Amino acid sequence: MFGLIGHSTSLEAARSLAERLGFPEYAAGDLEMWCSAPPQLVERFEVVSATGARIEGAYIDSVFVPEMLRRFKTAKRKVLNAMELAQKSGLHISALGGFTSIIFEDMNLLREQQVRATTLDWQRFTTGNTHTAWVICRQVEENAPRLGIDLSRARVAVVGATGDIGSAVCHWLQERTSVGELLLVARKEQPLRDLQAALGAGRILPLEEALPEADVVVWVASLPESLSIDVARLRRPCLMIDGGYPKNLDSKAVAEGVHVLKGGIVEFHRDIDWQVVAIAADMARPHRQMFACFAEAMLLDFEGLHTNFSWGRNNIRLEQMDQIGAASLRHGFCALDLASQACRDPAAQPAADPAAAASQPVPAA
Amino acid sequence: MPTVESTPSSNDLAPSGNVAPVEGLPDFGSDTYKDAYSRINAIVIEGEQEAHDNYISIGSLLPDQAEELARLARMELKHMKGFTACAANLGVTADMDFAREFFSPLRDNFQTALAEGKVVTCLLIQALLIEAFAIAAYHIYIPVADPFARKITEGVVKDEYTHLNYGQEWLKANFEASRAELEQANRENLTHVRRMLERVADDAAVLQMEKEDLIEDFLIAYQEALTEIGFQPREIARMAAAALVG
Question: How big is chain B by its Cα radius of gyration, in Å?
Fold first, then answer.
């Protein structure tokens, strides 16, 4: 049995969800109330693979909302309590969705294994970042040619290159594709140099210099609200994979010839009969689309791999990406592409996969 | 030296009466701490005494369980003695008048239910609400307690799970017959727990125990019990809401 640990994208979204689900007390509650609310296992559902295999899962709302990020103790408690609930509910492998994996990593919750009477078993949890990285790479490889971008000649900028997902994407693109040149963008200089040395390739550039050179931009970093992109200086065509959080690139890079694709999102081969996840995740096709990190928990359960497949920072190996990628295809997932995104409701704003944001904020341009 | 039979390791601890400040922990010797502790400690002592009395009373409603309930009751008295020793160790006199008044809403409701022979309500008040309240408070207290109290509380919290489990198992075995009364008793009593937590919040903060932690931990323990008893997640979330608002 697998678990998805998630949260609403804002307090307002959480209250709205509570209203729709028929919990008026929660809908009326302020931030203080939500800070005191315990995690909830809100629904259970079945997922049927393209192979015919069936697994059961559950969605746990951590009751965290991004407004709690400044309250370190609260944020930490929300994540640990949700993990404890997942473990006590007998879920064999649970994905830490949204901000929960970032909080786990940044607040070093590995030190907090004891939650009341429960010793957390790390083997039961995964960040889902391996699958997210694989999906983003696939989105690059599949969609660039469709726009007439020849990857073997293309410059691909990875913004947030030294993060968990970013570094995996860089290694994959360098070693498994014939990409023309990698442009490495991140906040800290030394990790960038280390990455460049490990890759044996790549050019380190500040964001404002990388963007005008790039045919493809992979964003796996948080975009500050203040960031503005001078679209006039972007190449045409330009493919932008928005794997960051919040997914607001499509409002910052609006121009003809600039194609923004929501990154790290997959679509399942058939509908999943979940109700709360459909509302909470806010996808264009809510019964089929989901974050790749959530899908990783399903894949691990389908494959009987009840282990923390994605764990820690910069531990993702290409062989693991091969393995999870093959499982992804076998069980009926496909990466969201420009064509399928375009034919759906363009007003729908899928919530982001903030795991991609890691802690790699981009300096304001 | 105090005798705390339920906490074997506490025999190693001699009350110091003088606890040196430890970095990151409250100043256990300060007047502010002792003042707050006089009420918090009294609540704990009174809570353990009432728990003892309540289990004996529930035994009168469930004669075939009276022996087991008397055993649980005896554990509560041991806890009470342990916490009394904690106050003595810090040179604090527990404010028992405050504590008796603090518990009066739940005590009154328990006594009314007892008089009406409502065993389900009695179990919900004592074995679920008060035990979950205690478990939450003890878990949050342990990391910020003085060394003497910490050892004692660590022993006590394990026992409180036994007590919560007792009520849980009985209600689980009688779930369908108890469901309506449980929901009613939840409505009538959970708001009292909320108000009790609100009342004690300032004093708890002096002990470095935060209100939102207390409420969340209480609800986690309470919700776990409701899950075990047989309620569905949506029912539980709705029942628990009474502790969050109002």
Answer: 18
φ/ψ region of A350 (left if φ > 0, alpha if ψ in -120 to 50, else beta) reads beta
The structure tokens listed for A232 are 């006039």
Residues A265-297: tens digit of each pLDDT: 999 999 999 999 998 887 899 999 999 999 999
Search chain A and give the residue with CA nearest B143: A116
Low-confidence ranges of chain A (pLDDT < 50): 343-365
Q: What is the 8-class DSSP label of residue A10? A: S
- B4 SS3 class: coil
What pLDDT band is residue B13 in, cutting at 50, 70 and 90? very low
* Residue among B236, B242, B244 minimizing CB distance to A36: B244
User: Can you spell out the DSSP letters for A76-135?
Assistant: HHHHHHHHHHHHHTT-SEEEE-THHHHHHHHTTGGG--EETTEE--GGGEE--HHHHHHH
A37: nearest CB among B161, B236, B244: B244
pTM exceeds 0.80, yes or no: yes
What is the crossing angle of helices A292-302 and A318-330, to 10°?
Answer: 80
Measured in residues, chain B has a length of: 246
What is the sign of the dihedral through the CA atoms of B17, B21, B23 and B25?
positive
With 0-12 CB in 10 A as exposed, 13-18 as middle and 19+ as buried, what is B9?
exposed
Class of residue A194 by CB neighbours under 10 A (exposed 0-12, middle 13-18, buried 19+): middle
Which residues does chain B have within 8 Å of residue A65's beta carbon, measured at their own beta carbons?
Answer: none
The predicted complex's ipTM stands at 0.86
Question: Is the Cβ–Cβ distance between A259 and A238 less than 8 Å?
Answer: yes
The token duo for B219 is 């609800």
Rounded Cα–Cα distance for residues B34 and B21 (Å):
13
Phi first, then psi, for residue A245 (nearest 5°) are -145, 135
Contact A81 B220 (CB under 8 A): yes
Tokens of A281: 């995740």
